[in-house]
Write a structure and sequence with these properties.
540 residues; alpha/beta; 5-stranded parallel β-sheet; 22 helices; 13 strands; globular; binds 6-O-phosphono-beta-D-fructofuranose
């Protein structure tokens, strides 16, 4: 198979030459040479403040990265996405999560049909339903108020809802409980319903395809759990709603389509938290807050569409990621929110980034001869500081970090917030500037201990600040990463919107399921797989 010629482009080769000139330059020198870079390399727009001055770049690096983006027609391709062109080539689909947060008067055509009215019709239906559940008008089969919401879904039909619920918990009613069942491991379901009463419980079965094995298995179990107590099929209509693109399968499952919230094939699973997949979020935070969330997404869409590249947060973030991934050989990106409510944000970003850009075949069907999607990971600060930050500071790997922080705490308690924020600012400073052997010696450290206590520094980070964590800010942050992923995908020439790599495991699992219990089946896998199946059978 042929390889892609990205690395032969003039703009790429210029970056390679530039990399050789800059790679040994220390951030200390960059700041000495350009003392005002901490003011210069920042963006302050739409309520977010992004400081990217602690990156191993100069103005020239940025110019060269923008040239690369130009040569690869980033702007034209961005516009094609917003227009509704079928840029998801391998699935022949438009990519229009941006239409989910478009204002009512926008017009976006897919196959000649304006999709905006449908989007708003579903939002209205969701708002109506959410209000009825929240105010107790929607009752369970036996007339009891719904107190517990359980979203059953996996991947994009789970990670967005659970992340958003956790992130926005401050805005949720505390007399309701929210649970998210995703894993096919029965423990997930069993523990979620442990102390719940089916009469007060509503299940939202969330699945774009409504065929996903894990979700359908959990949904069936939920049905049995409900019927065990309520003993009447008619109860299903009061305790189950569906979110899906697949009306046929929803009906087959026994859910009335009146209780179905629709979305469309032009919304990718990992880009769907602001579609009807966000129904649990809307019930949790209320329709007004959900609208704020959508407004935050939309503001970032507009920023991505209109801000000049040098002030464009998703473009900068995406291109910096390419810079480290492809020139410095960085393998990962750490996302480190200094906000406890964002504790599931890194997990959410793992699907968004890695299912999108974990590809090695280009849109033209060629092999990439360069690295693509980095590994995303992270934990909230300050917890990470007491576990893995050692490696980021003194390990052998370069790990660009995204710090996310807020000027105000939602739960101000004494001086907790000052301590939290001092820590996030200190981490960026320590990573960038480190501590020289001379400084360590001057503290009276014995010679033999000096190398251990020296911090080489020169480790890059971005710091993003917002005023406080609101639904609107969450929308902006998610859209920031969505468009950064898009920017990277354009540079690498891959389809960021398909996910063929998850298929094989699903097919093989379906084949193995009956083999585990049907002891008569002759096993024809490799010796390791056969042996593992036999090992499991012995425990039956
Ligand atoms: O297996 C991967 C995947 O297809 C994701 O892309 C998707 O978010 C998830 O499964 C769940 O799919 P569905 O919403 O169709 O159940």
């Amino acid at each position: 198979m042929e390889t892609n010629n990205l690395t032969k482009l003039t703009s790429w080769q210029k970056l390679e030459t530039h990399y050789k000139q800059i790679k040994d330059k220390h951030l200390r020198d960059l700041f000495n040479e350009q003392p005002e870079r901490g003011l210069k390399f920042t963006v302050n727009s739409i309520g977010l403040f992004m400081d990217y001055s602690k990156h191993r770049i100069t103005g020239e690096t940025l110019d060269l990265l923008f040239n690369l983006a130009d040569e690869l027609e980033l702007v034209e391709k961005r516009d094609a996405m917003f227009r509704g062109d079928k840029i998801n080539k391998t699935e022949n689909r438009a990519v229009l999560h941006t239409a989910l947060r478009a204002p009512k008067d926008a017009k976006i055509l897919v196959d000649g049909k304006d999709v905006v009215p449908e989007v708003h019709a579903v939002l209205n239906k969701m708002a109506n339903f959410s209000n009825r559940v929240r105010n107790g008008e929607w009752k369970g089969y036996t007339g009891k108020r719904i107190k517990n919401i359980i979203n059953i879904g996996i991947g994009g039909s789970d990670l967005g809802p659970v992340m958003a619920y956790e992130a926005l918990k401050y805005y949720t009613p505390r007399d309701m409980t929210f649970h998210f069942v995703s894993n096919v491991d029965g423990t997930d379901f069993a523990e979620s319903v442990y102390s719940l009463d089916p009469e007060e419980t509503l299940f939202i079965i969330s699945s774009k395809t409504f065929t996903t094995l894990e979700t359908m298995t959990n949904a069936q179990t939920a049905r049995e759990w409900t019927l065990k107590k309520l003993k009447d099929e008619k109860a299903i209509a009061k305790h189950f709603v569906a979110v899906s693109t697949n009306e046929k399968e929803v009906t087959k499952f026994g859910i009335d389509t009146a209780n179905m919230f629709e979305f469309w094939d032009w919304v990718g699973g990992r880009y769907s938290m602001d579609s009807a997949i966000g129904l649990s979020t809307m019930i949790a935070i209320g329709p007004e807050n959900f609208n704020e969330l959508l407004s935050g997404f939309h503001q970032m869409d507009e920023h991505f569409k209109t801000a000049p590249l040098e002030q464009n947060m998703p473009v900068l973030m995406g291109l910096l990621s390419v810079w480290y991934n492809n020139f410095f050989g960085a393998q990962t990106v750490a996302v480190l929110p200094y906000e406890q409510y964002l504790h599931r944000f890194p997990a959410y970003l793992q699907q968004l980034t890695m299912e999108s850009n974990g590809k090695h075949i280009t849109l033209d069907g060629m092999i990439t001869e360069y690295q693509t999607g980095p590994i995303f990971w992270g934990e909230p600060g300050t917890n990470g500081q007491h576990s893995f930050y050692q490696l980021i500071h003194q390990g052998t790997k370069i790990i660009p970090c995204d710090f996310i922080a807020f000027r105000q705490s939602l739960n101000p308690l004494g001086n907790h917030h000052d301590i939290l924020i001092a820590n996030v600012i200190a981490q960026g400073e320590a990573l960038a500037f480190g501590k020289t052997p001379e400084e360590v010696k001057a503290e009276g450290t014995p010679d033999w201990l000096v190398p251990h206590r020296t911090f080489e520094g020169n480790r890059p980070s971005t710091t993003i600040f917002a005023d406080k964590l609101t639904p609107e800010v969450l929308g902006k942050l998610v859209a920031l990463y969505e468009h950064s992923v898009f920017t990277q995908g354009i540079i690498w020439g891959i389809d960021s919107f398909d996910q063929w790599g998850v298929e094989l495991g699903k097919v093989l699992a379906k084949r193995i399921i009956p083999q585990l219990t049907d002891l008569k089946t002759k096993l024809d896998h490799d010796s390791s797989t056969n042996n593992l199946i036999k090992h499991y059978r012995k425990g039956l």
